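Please review this one.

:::
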Amino acid sequence: MGENQNISELSLLAGVATGNETAFRSLFDRYRGKIYSYALRLSEDTSLADEVVQDVFLKVWLKRKDLPAVENFNAWLYAIARHRMFDMMKQQAREIQTLEAVQLAAPDTGNNAELSLLEKEHQLLLKDALSQLSPRQQHIYHLSRHHGMKHGEIAHTLNISRHTVKTHLVHALRVIRQHITPYINSIILGSWLLENIF
């Protein structure tokens, strides 16, 4: 049984190496669940686990010509998954630091009409971005930003792990960034000019 499995795998790898998409799909179907479970255990986040699976198999496809030289495909695949998870965790750590250090609220406006307009524009963008979050992400973001609760406090309140809290906040930040990026540079520049020049 194991020998037949190995032969079948070698056949699939040979097919993938030549660019056979059917073989690649079969390989994907065989290993997707294992990589997904591995990523889910580490991240506790289904969307992130899906992202890891996609990234890992994209790497397999891009490296397909190297497959015939791979002696232990299972170990090779998990090494790619571990490396990708390590990169994503480093990215999460950076984004969490940014989320905790940078307040998305506009600067104090006082009675300045221009700054007041910037604040309104910024708040509308933020409101639109927050509306795209899941209810759980909105709740965690609200507890963090508006109640000043630490990750451990949120985790205790919602009966979830600290890592789950961090993951939700990272995703919240990602959604917010994606939404406001097309606009935020002009808002920040305008705010800086008003604060530092006018």
